[in-house]
Amino acid sequence: MAGEGSAAAFDDEAEPTVTIGEYIEGIEAEELEADLVLGGDDGKECTYGGGYLKRQAVFSCLTCVPAGVGGVCTACSLACHDGHEVVELWTKRKFRCDCGNSKFGGHPCKLCPEKDPENSANSYNHNFKGSYCTCGRPYPDPEAKEQVEMIQCCICEDWFHEDHIGLNSIEEIPHDEEGEPLYEDFICQKCSPDCYFLKLYPDTVWASRTQNSVSQASTTDSTVMDGGPSHDNIEKRENGSLANHLNCENTYGDDNCPKDNAAPEKAILDDSSDRKCKLGMDIGTNTTLVDSEKKLPFFMSKGWREVICRCETCTNFYGEQGVAYLIDKDDSIEEYEKVAKQKREKKLEQQEGAEANFLNSLDHVQKIEILSGINDMKNEFQSFLESFDPTKPVTSEDIKAVFENLAKKKRQRLS
Ligand SMILES: [Zn+2]
Ligand SMILES: [Zn+2]
Ligand SMILES: [Zn+2]
Ligand SMILES: [Zn+2]
Ligand SMILES: [Zn+2]
Ligand SMILES: [Zn+2]
Predict the structure, then answer these.
(1) Each residue's pLDDT tens digit, 113-125
(2) What's the 32 CA to ligand 4 centre distance in angstroms?
(3) What is the domain range of residue 376?
(4) pTM score of the predicted model
(5) Angle at CA 189, nearest 5°, toward 188 and 194?
């Protein structure tokens, strides 16, 4: 069947298959994604003056700093490192722009040249060299058949392939049926000993593949808790706070269950006062925390950061462990993205306002000229859309035709 007919059919199939709706949605989604990473930063000014920002998008320029021990802000990545080999690191906490400082081998910063020779509080993991995960591969990985998404540890901020985080199967990662994460934060194997104190908390802070809920807790079967406390004990300790004893069978395989024999007793949270410790203990001296040998990745449930205790003792302990940022609302990606979304909405509003102001500043003739241009565009698109089944793919030929017709109209009016 090598006739002309089948060749034509093949051509049709080779056309890009995107509908107008999908095309516009795609552009908007890309813009939103970019705005979320940039945190609503318009990328015009170097952020150095703001000091160590709680969170910002960071880039590493391997042309200027091949050793990967320097990072620059968004504006600098654009203004000072255009055409260089720049690695996008997504967001990092407590980072100050290094652009043009002593690490940059004489390459000056065009936006903010007056900088200290070094930012001593910056830290640089291997992401700054362009490698990620325990496997140290680049992203995107030129040798991978398919680019898979990676997950970021909320402590060290390195990125990991889901199958390299030390679980028996990626099935143990709390995802819903669509593959969307059911967890807010991930803590990698390397960082989990620093966060071992979280094991004192009830299981509501742990993400599970089925949503944590009180009703589920009451139906949870105690038989999965091999070696753990017997059902009777749970009943006695519960005092009505069932949610405190949700088990972890859904999140971790049996071998990985954090509630192993060495796991500390879970506290029943006391929310009665802000000053009193929710855990009712001095976590710094709690001896059940000594067993941090077992390095397991943790998945934390949505809203877990609000649950953890903020009493003086606990707060000091977080400081000693170097994780004080966990109780800072602005540290979470969720908050960062929320602020970014608000800034984006404001920006879009301002853009609309600016367009209206621009029109008002024009004289009558200019207005007519522009408006008729816009109208031509609208009409052309309108008739194009009407002539077209919106669910059908749009090809580059179709788009070209629209603009050719517009050009013709303009010539007609000018002549
Ligand atoms: Zn900068
Ligand atoms: Zn550079
Ligand atoms: Zn710069
Ligand atoms: Zn990996
Ligand atoms: Zn980590
Ligand atoms: Zn406390």
Answers:
(1) 999 999 999 999 9
(2) 27
(3) 362-415
(4) 0.66
(5) 85
